[in-house]
């Protein structure tokens, strides 16, 4: 007996529709890659809009609103959009007129769609942002319009944090809250210790080492920071970053004294996770560490925080303090290794919805 594909079976069962009956769509599975977001442009107003949405998120800034509102609206949104827009200009994809985070996330989704085509089932892959465009709400609606009654949300963060993973899920569930017919939803878990991920990171380090004219004294794994208080309140982000770092070092077979984990992108005056990358870059040359290789395992795509902050600001700081050689390992991005990781996570989480076991 030949199995009838699910969509056909649904159509046959429905038969002729009564007058005025809403259209019946084929049943599909949606995969929605969710990234952080990036401004629509580098001008003052685009930057301000993006920063306002980002920094109004209570998952990102937990300061009481009565205190935060005047700081944000009267100070930060006045002084930050201008200089940050200039920073974005340095890394902007002028061909497409968008930030690299957007270009890379789109490419990841397009390539993933090609890779999942052979899985069986009718799968639609799309991508959306937590802040800015394309919005999470609009892309969930687009998946629903194409008949997706099951959606796998994939927050593109290997390490879980309430400030990233949870707020991405919150935004998606906020969109579902207004729907009469909600899709069934799964949220992919973080993959900070997945062998596919650690192996991909190790292979990018090895590939980079093969191109260098020096042997690094130190491999520095830099993760985006969060306030230290989030760790004390129970956010697992710190521990997951440390585990990723340890597994990467063990896989590479590097000694403990030639490897360290740092945290970057501190914002505001509160204490964040330490050691700070920028301080470390200023101190290492004085400790005899003159040649460094930096990797940013927490970012699935190169962006402002890697290209401008690590490869720009931190490299300059290191050299200024007596460093001799600095190299940066690009993120996994839309490389075959990067797609292998996303595909492994997605295929695992689609089990029962797509592939051989799908009903
Ligand atoms: C102010 C608090 C912030 C927290 C907490 C935070 C956590 C956090 N962020 C990322 C990933 C990215 N952040 C990016 C930019 C960025 N981050 C903050 C603030 C916090 N992030 C701001 C204000 C900005 C915008 C730039 C600036 O004004 O400094 C980006 C880059 C986006 C791009 O368009 O290139 C990424 C990616 C993680 C993973 C994280 C916690 C785990
Ligand atoms: Fe950030
Ligand atoms: Fe920890």
UniProtKB/TrEMBL annotation:
<keyword id="KW-0963">Cytoplasm</keyword>
<comment type="function">
    <text>Catalyzes the ferrous insertion into protoporphyrin IX.</text>
</comment>
<dbReference type="InterPro" id="IPR033659">
    <property type="entry name" value="Ferrochelatase_N"/>
</dbReference>
<keyword id="KW-0350">Heme biosynthesis</keyword>
<dbReference type="InterPro" id="IPR033644">
    <property type="entry name" value="Ferrochelatase_C"/>
</dbReference>
<comment type="pathway">
    <text>Porphyrin-containing compound metabolism; protoheme biosynthesis; protoheme from protoporphyrin-IX: step 1/1.</text>
</comment>
<dbReference type="GO" id="GO:0016829">
    <property type="term" value="F:lyase activity"/>
</dbReference>
<protein>
    <recommendedName>
        <fullName>Ferrochelatase</fullName>
        <ecNumber>4.98.1.1</ecNumber>
    </recommendedName>
</protein>
<keyword id="KW-0456">Lyase</keyword>
<feature type="binding site">
    <location>
        <position position="305"/>
    </location>
    <ligand>
        <name>Fe(2+)</name>
    </ligand>
</feature>
<dbReference type="Pfam" id="PF00762">
    <property type="entry name" value="Ferrochelatase"/>
</dbReference>
<keyword id="KW-0408">Iron</keyword>
<feature type="binding site">
    <location>
        <position position="224"/>
    </location>
    <ligand>
        <name>Fe(2+)</name>
    </ligand>
</feature>
<keyword id="KW-0479">Metal-binding</keyword>
<dbReference type="InterPro" id="IPR001015">
    <property type="entry name" value="Ferrochelatase"/>
</dbReference>
<keyword id="KW-0627">Porphyrin biosynthesis</keyword>
<comment type="similarity">
    <text>Belongs to the ferrochelatase family.</text>
</comment>
<dbReference type="InterPro" id="IPR019772">
    <property type="entry name" value="Ferrochelatase_AS"/>
</dbReference>
């Amino acid at each position: 007996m030949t199995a009838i594909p699910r969509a056909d079976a649904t159509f046959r069962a429905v038969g002729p529709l009564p007058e005025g009956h809403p259209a019946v769509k084929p049943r599909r599975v949606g995969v929605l890659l969710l990234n952080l977001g990036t401004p629509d442009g580098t001008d003052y107003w685009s930057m301000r809009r993006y920063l306002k949405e980002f920094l109004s998120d209570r998952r990102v800034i937990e300061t009481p609103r009565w205190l935060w509102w005047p700081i944000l609206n009267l100070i930060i949104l006045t002084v930050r959009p201008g200089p940050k827009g200039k920073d974005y200009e340095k890394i902007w994809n002028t061909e497409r007129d968008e930030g690299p985070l957007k270009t890379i996330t789109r490419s990841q989704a397009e390539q993933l769609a090609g890779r999942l085509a052979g899985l069986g089932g009718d799968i639609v892959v799309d991508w959306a942002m937590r802040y800015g465009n394309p919005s999470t709400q609009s892309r969930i609606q687009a998946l629903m319009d194409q008949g997706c009654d099951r959606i796998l949300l994939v927050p593109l963060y290997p390490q879980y944090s309430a400030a990233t993973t949870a707020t991405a899920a919150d935004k998606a569930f906020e969109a579902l809250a207004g729907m009469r017919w909600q899709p069934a939803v799964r949220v992919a878990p973080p993959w900070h210790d997945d062998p596919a991920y650690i192996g991909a990171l190790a292979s990018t380090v090895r590939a980079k080492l093969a191109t260098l004219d020096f042997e690094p004294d130190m491999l520095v794994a830099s993760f985006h920071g969060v306030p230290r208080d989030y760790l004390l309140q129970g956010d697992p982000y710190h521990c997951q970053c440390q585990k990723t770092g340890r597994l990467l070092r063990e896989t590479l077979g590097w000694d403990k004294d030639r490897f360290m984990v740092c945290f970057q992108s501190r914002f505001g005056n509160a204490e964040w996770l330490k050691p700070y990358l920028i301080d470390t870059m200023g101190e290492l040359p004085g400790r005899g560490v003159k040649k460094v290789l930096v990797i940013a395992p927490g970012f699935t795509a190169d962006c402002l925080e890697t290209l401008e902050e690590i490869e720009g600001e931190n490299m300059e700081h290191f050299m200024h303090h007596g460093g001799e050689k600095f190299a940066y390992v690009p993120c996994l991005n839309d490389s075959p290794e990067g797609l292998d990781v996303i595909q492994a996570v997605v295929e695992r989480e689609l089990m029962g919805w797509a592939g051989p076991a799908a009903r």
